[in-house]
Structures are given as C-alpha cells and as structure tokens.
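Troubleshooting: if your tokenizer reports a length mismatch, compare your output against this known-good record of 438 residues.
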Amino acid sequence: MHNVFIAWGGNVSLANQIKNILQSDKFNVIVGGGSPTDMFVGAQVIDQINQCDCAILLIEDYNGQISSNLFFEWGYLLANKDIRNQNIQIFMIDKSPRELPSDLLGVWVSEMKRDKTLPDNGDAKLAEQIKAKFLSQVNSENRLDYFTIINDWPNIRQNFSDKKKRLSEREFEERVIIGCLAAYYYNDYKYLYDELSKVTGSSEFNSTILFARTYIEVFLKSDNMTKEISTKDFFKFAEIFEVFLNREITGDNFSKLVSILCNDVYGLSCLLFLKNDDLDAVVKEECKNKALKCFEETLVLTDELEKVLTENKCLLHLIRAYIYNDTAHLYEGHYNDKERYLQYLEKSVAERKNLHLTFCTKYPRNRYVANKLEQEYMIALSEKCKYMNNDFQRKISISTVKSKYDEWKADIDYISSLVRRLEHNIKALDKPDDAIKT
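Known-good structure output:
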C-alpha cells in the first residue's frame, strides 16, 4: 500500500480524477492543497507530503504559466529523504521539458497530451494514461541499492517506528529487513527489537515484522553468536522460520531477499543449537542436514537475485560471505569434511575482500562500517593462513593480518585507557562528599 501525494497547478479536476482511480487500486491518495479557511497552506502541504512515499506532479500551464506552488512542492519532494527519487513522477501536459528552468533541465519527465475534443477536456482519458505510467514505475523491481540503508543507518534509526506513519508498508519492510543486517554492525539489535514491538499493519506486514524480531532474537539469545541457543528457543525459532518460508509469496525481488535471509538465519540457528553438548545423534543429524539445506537454498536464491538486483553488489557479497563462512564451519565441525571446509573458507575470504573493497569505493566516507568489514575480512584471512600451500603468499597474508592487528590493538588500548579513567572518575562520584574532601 503506497501513500501518494498529487501536486497540481490549476488542474485540480485532473488531480481528483487520478485520485479516484488510484484509490480504486487500493492506494492512499492526498491531493495537495488546503481549504479557503486555511491561513498557512504551505505548512499543510508539507504535512501532506510527509505522510506519503510517492508523488505525482501535474505540470501544466495555469493562466499562461506554470504554478509557482508546484516548484515549491517539487523542491520539497526532492529534498525529502523518505521519498525515493524514482517514486516522484513528473507529468508535463502539453509542454516540453525544455520549458523548465535551467536547474531542472535533464530531469526525467513524461510528456502527456490532452485530447481537448473530449467533453471533459480530456481529463478522464489523461487520468487513465497517467495512472498506467505511474503503476508501471512504482511497481518496478529496479530497486535502489539496499546497502544504502546500512550506510545511512544512524539517520534511518532515529524515531524508527514513527517512520511507519509516512512510509508504505513495503518501504518500511525494506528498512526493517536490511535494518536487521545494519543492527549487527552498529550494535543496535536491542533497539531495533524494541522498536518493532511498536508497529503493526496488514497480516503480511505483521508476518515480516515477526520474522525480523525472531531474526534479532537469534543474535540476542546467542550473545551475538558466542554461545549456544537453548532447545526451547531453537524450536520456537524453527517453527516461526518454517511457517515464514512456507507462506504464500508474490515472487517479487524483495520477497526473495527476505527468503534468503530467512534461510540464512535458520541455518545459523541450527549451527548455534548444535553447540549444545547433550544432543542425541538423531537430532544432531537432522539439524546439520537442515542447516546445509538452508545454506544451499540461500545460494540458489542469491544467484537468481543477482540477475535483477544489479546495483546491489555489496549486499550480494555480504550474503555470500555469511553463507560460505557458515557452510565452511558446518562441514568442518559436523561433517568432518576438510576439503569442502577449505573450499568454502576460500570463497568466504574472497567475498569478504570484495565486500570491503566495493563498500569503500561506493561509500568512501563511512569509515566506521568500512573498518568493521575489514576486520571481518582479516578474521577470515587469518583462518585461511593456516592452510595456505604457497609459502610466499602465506607470509604476505600473515604479515598483513599482524599489521592490522597491531593497528587495531593500539586503538583498543587507547580506548581502554579512557574507559579506565572514566571508571575511576565515576567511582569518585559515588563516594560520600566528606570522603572526597579528605
């Protein structure tokens, strides 16, 4: 369900025609403007825009010129970070883009023609044509690079649950699902888990929110994968994941992405459950086979997604790095298959390296996440060093790992010294006043 803002200038009858036919397709539509009693229409229009995730601009002569209000609304829409540029659709009616101010030359617009021979001056016919173009664009699967959500997470997380009020369910779901990945790098799982308890919507939307909360719980219960998850927690997680994977889905790219992450975390849950020492042989066998099936399915779906999500190189590298790493340790720890362990470890190292390089190229200012990705790459590379046959390559790799370790260790020591000083000051604050004076 999208919330659509329609900006118009002198052609409100056309705007209302479009509103009526889009609402019949289950869109929420707001035709911009205020009533004659409104003293400050501009403030009302801004509030209307802030409730929406899509916009239609109807550019047409009004008293011989384009309405200046339209340019104000157009500018505000472009500056609104909660509305993607591809969801702002501009329709120039009986006008050419060359007639736009120079600052707007080169923007993408649709040129439309009125049939003024029709009784309603062509409004009904034009409304249907604009509706068709709008639907073809808004339903397009050419999504943005989802990794921008991870890159911009510190801004996106602010008042996270409140954003549900002015985003479509799909747009909010995208932030939730990719937010599950972002929360790992920003140590934000508890915050996101609590925020998701505040939102509700359609049954399909609620299903996605339940999956996201369960995804986060896996990391919370395992103390970020450092300890096993209990039998009770594992079977609760498994039940939710099984229901989610068997749900009826539309087959669009985002649904496929969610299925990838569900298979991924389901397989990871199996690995964390296998850490328990008291499992019987039958349960262990079933659990390791389920993990392998999940990881294999994830890779198949990722290959399919790569064909259409061409702008998502970072995300694809990240998913494969996770799966290759987990599959490697599954073969090592539970299948006793060293050959496959090394094969998948090699792939994991390569994907982590590519992820780090690709991220630094695309988001050069985000040193925080870049360092996290480089640390993950160095951890994987250090594990691979033990099995390198090429002695020269092994020495170079070990030298690289140790150099980075020394660099990060110095940072840790410095931060630790600050923490100790702060701890000393806090203890002093807790002492009675007379103890401090003496």
